[in-house]
Amino acid sequence: MTFREFVAECPNTDQHRICLLRHDLDDKPQRLRLFLEAERIAGVRSTTFILVHTDKYNPHAYPLLKILREAERDGFEIGLHSNFLEAAKATGYNPETLLKNEVETLRGYFQISGVACHRNIDNMYNSLPYLEKNWPALRGLTGLTYHAYDAEIMNNLAFVNEGIMPLGWRSLTPEEVIASGRSFCLSTHPHWWHKDHAHED
Fold it and tell me: From CA 172, how far away is CA 139, in angstroms rounded?
């Protein structure tokens, strides 16, 4: 299910087995298509968090915008992926203003309800502590209804995601958490995935 659905429905994760699907679009946005196609076939929906401030892709580029708008039309959720503190430090903006601008930029095209903080290994600043400390004010300023690392979400779910040293699953694997019967959040980064080989695009 999507983050928006999870927050709206507040399912009991002890009584219902939930898989919250998340994709962080950091690079090679064309690879998102593989995930969306598989999820359409399986009849499930996910949330894709996209960057506004990045030199890796343009969220408004014609091919990507078409993929994302079709996904939202089909019931997938688009959210904001942001290291607004890093971007603010680099550009001289107020962090709150920059976050609000990012949300409003994407709302010209999508129904943006949530944000997931982003941090590359070469970033100096981590937006998550700032976001958590100031969440009530930032939520009021932006109109966002959730952030992806909120304790009300994370404390009720096992968290499954990839790591890079070595490249693979960080702690739990999807197979392990499925076998355990626990509800979980599966977080992926499409640029680390491919269909045939790592250099296909």
Answer: 31
